[in-house]
Amino acid sequence: MPDEIVLTLTVNGDKHRRLIPASRTLLDFLREDLGLTGSKHGCDVGDCGACTVRVGGVPRLACITLAAEVDGEEVQTIEGIGAAEAPLVAAFDKHVASQCGYCTPGIILSLSHLFEQDPAADDAAIRETLGSNICRCTGYTKILAAAREVAARGGQTR
Amino acid sequence: MLPLPSFQYEAPTDVVEASRLLSEPGSQLIAGGTDLLVSMKHRLFEPRLLVSARRLGLRGISEHAGWLEIGAATTLHDVARHPTVLARLPALAAACRTVATPTIQTMATLGGNLMLDTRCMYYNQPAGWRATLGYCLKREGTVCHVAPKGRGCYATHSADTVPALWLMGAEAEFSSARGVRRVAVSSMYREDGIAWLRLERDEVLTRVFVPLDTRRVVHRKLRTRQAIDYAQVLVAVAGPVSPGGTWTAVISSVSSSPILVEAASAAELSEAAFRACQPLSTHLAPATWRKKMVRVEVARAAALIG
Amino acid sequence: MSENDNRPAWATYPTHTGEPAEGGVLGRRDAKIDGRARIVGAAVFTDDLKLPRMVFGKFVRSTQAHARIVAVDVSAALALPGVVGFATGAELPKKYGVIPVAQDETAMAIGKVRYIGEPIVCIAAVDEETAHRAARAVRVTYEPLTPVLTIEQALDPKMPHIHEASRKPSNILRRVFQEYGDVDAGFAASDLVIEDVYEYPGSTHVPLEAHVALANPEPDGKLTLWSSTQNPHYVHRDVAHVLGMREQDVRLIKPAIGAGYGGKCDPFCTDIVAGHLARKLGRPVKISLEREEVFYAHRGRHPTRMWLKMGFKRDGSITAIDFKAWADGGAYASYGVVTSYYLGVFMPLPYRLENYRFESHRLYTNKPPCGPKRGHGAVQPRLALEMHIDRAALQLGLDPAGMRKANCIEAGSETCNGLKVTSVGMRECIDAVVAASGYAERHGRLGPGRGLGLAASAYMCGALHPVYQNELSQSSVQLKVDRSGEVTLFSGTADCGQGSIHMLAALCAERLGIEPADVRVIEGDTALTPVDLGSYSSRVTFMAGNACISASDRVRERLASAVAAKLGVESSALSFRGRRVFVTSEPERGVSFVDAVWLAEEMIGPIGEVGGYKPHKIGSRFRRQSVGPSPAYSFTAQVAEVSVDPETGIVTIDKIWVAHDCGRAINRTIVEGQIEGCVYMGVGEALYEEQRYRGAMMTSPSLLEYKIPTVHETPEIETFIIETHDPNGPFGAKEAGEGPQLSTVPAIANALYDATGVWFRQPPFTPDRVLAALSRKVT
What we know:
The structure holds three protein chains of three kinds. By secondary structure, chain A is of the alpha+beta class.
């Protein structure tokens, strides 16, 4: 039985096919094999959210996802954000919602999923979503301000 | 970074094949992996073979003859947002939404939650930490640090969805190459932190059945932080079916198996629960405080039923 | 400028205190110039770097708290395919440490181990999994020694010395005793004396990025080291020292840092061992700590027992303070000598005090070393002091806010221990939070289970004296002006997320009339950037900011002289704003900034300037007071509103109002972020965070069990910026990154009293403790 597998994965629109150890996490595949280092090692055991990526559109913790378990899927990392996330990035920038920036890519991907589901997400939904991501710098105030601003604009364009 | 140990990997497409792979020593089923992979990084498990559940077709929710059938690999996120669950089984939705974090709920499965390993502050630790401790009875060691003079392992059952499912009268379907069996969720567990699950190693949890005519159940989870954390006390409470009937509670995170308590009134229920639960020092929060919280949480759940 | 200024010529410059923002940049809410890169994951952190032939180092760590190392057997590890080498402590025998008088640490243990988790050996392998497996295969044989684990044991002369070379009678790193005025007379003259004991727990920083180092041996024998450090300069010095290299042969680069909060102020085993192994193996070596190891690297808040006695007059004035503190410092000194002073020296701020005595002990125990955590050494005593103030106000029938304001020191005064206070916004801070929270109307009137609490505090803006004695610049900035108009700013600072990159760009832009985004900041690279002592003691805005203004003004003089000659006016007649240099009285007469650069280059030559900062010596009355004096002090007041669940003991913080005198906000949004980050950490220390031990074992070295607040536990924070324009700060700025840390926990403790009638003297205020206290109160 193989302890290596052939992985086929579409990452940020680019298709990759690689022979990898079965024990490779998605996070290490992205960082080490593809050089996509925007997803971070924070705790490595699913507590902090710094490794959050989207698989089939859904947020996942890449540090406790086997690359093998997402074979054939489409993955979006922070490097793959585009027009859909631009308002979020602009709001984070404006409110200085990123201090050291280590947690921020994961937060952007968590929130981008939320706003895709509900462009005018209310405060409770924003807070519930942010429960997935630890930020040790900001006290969340500026992150909440940025998210609320995006939600307010999402509400207007409805 | 904290690496995983190496292992082989198979993703079979039918349950019989999965069961055959699981019958071999050193093999382990992986569904959401949110607890398993953490435990593997901590070297609590070093399986030779991981058998993936992802191609077994176990995702999805449907209704049949008064039962909701939930595929075991359905994520907690999907369970919590299913219209029938929200309308008819709100305590199950609530329980799913208290697991860890929203992101983990998109990964973790209902089946995985039912099969969640028992937990303890001396067990759920990195390999080096456990080596320094001299390991523990549950894994690699000979002494239980919770109760050094005790007879067994007291790691606690900590699965957030189980107390509610138990009270709802939910059933679980296990399949193997030898056939299929369906058991009440209430009969799956036993009071042993090591052998806490009544299960053969080749069995795959395939579906969870929840009766839709269930009594109203209230789920409560006491924890330090409203995200990430496991429960310090976990309760589900159901009121009487008819006036004057029995009040029922299932309490978890205080012992290796959930504890069922029945009483004639809401007030008696919380006292009975307080007497029935004897939490030990498996958590950082003191056991004496957790015991008091059993009474409070059961009373508050009962009050919500009214 | 101060009358007793004795700075060298290079360090003298105008600070532009209180000037209007001529360049139009100051006080704005700009996005950070490096913000986008961090948001979209493009900022490169040390662990993101990868070099060809790179191998990975993994430490074997002690499983014993205090033991002799009898034998280390690496044979099984070396037999594993993929293992390329190892290093032991004995290969790196030179001791190091940031504080020259207390260098007691080696990169890995030599001969004996002093705490569980101390590195002993480092194994290098071609991948992390192999290195991890190999490290687990190393067998260490120990001969256990009696561990010293508590304050009592550390003070006990019968216990073994953790550091054998110590000549102290017990495990004391440093005892500090200072006395000012006549303390006994002060107590004799008092109407009320309050005396009590407080226990402040240990806590740790938890930067989301672990400590990481990557070392590359260069072909010419030199070494390049990338390190996630707050203090590139000290790491540079110590790595060269331990590796026996000339400092000039080591290039230390600090990439983006995933925060520090004081936890990355020391040189770590990662830095030194990566450098050593890279040279030994002749290939790049990366060492990334696992989360568990970050807890062992620690350098967090000292668990501190405190005894505080204060005397008061009926009017609330303070007649005397007698204070004793015992800090459980762990196995190595780290910054502990400084801690021993910081525990006491800030107590005479911000309230008038003539008679003051303090005695502190910084102790060694067999636990991971404590060090500087945000608000270093001053957080613990502030809890005791601010609770005492509230207790006195209650007993004297005074309004706690009014009593604090009435006793507040004045700008231009000197404390009894010789701290010269140049600007004070304390009263304005108290007024702001009292008004916003309705404290005057609501304190004491919210009913059972709900409460409001007030606390105030003061903190330093960098240390007046550098840790190693010299007359050199403490911060330096170099500017290069390109013909394109781009200004490149080189600085040895280390932005850990606090925004110092933007601060430098903003100050430079303000003086040159350009935009912050026109300034490219290169920081923390010893090959490129002039020395800055680092991101600690809340010194960067004040010191590097002043150095930046110095360099910017020199560039400005050059540009101005060229433009003045061209326009036929005096240099002093010119203004710099809107990317133009123009005649102030005739704004349409002028040239673009780019044209000004061209003119200056034609007239003078290529444009590059250097500026430095060194605080002027403050003529203190007390020669021995070398730790504590700062060029300026910041002030904070906070009100916390809490609810207590009487059945569970769970405390909820409903809201915190915070006002901080930062001197002047260079960027208002960034200043708010620093204040709010402090409050957040205070909430964690008040309710959740404690570095707990089972014997000598840390019980919770994980983000699951060491409970830092999530968004759900973080209260609403309303922030007020108070500006006092300090005469020596850059445009009057002081600090914002640490000061607000001091008053959060006491505000919460005072609010808990308001809610419950119980003085909680031991954080964290966990539900079991609160419930137990409430039940004791009832019975």
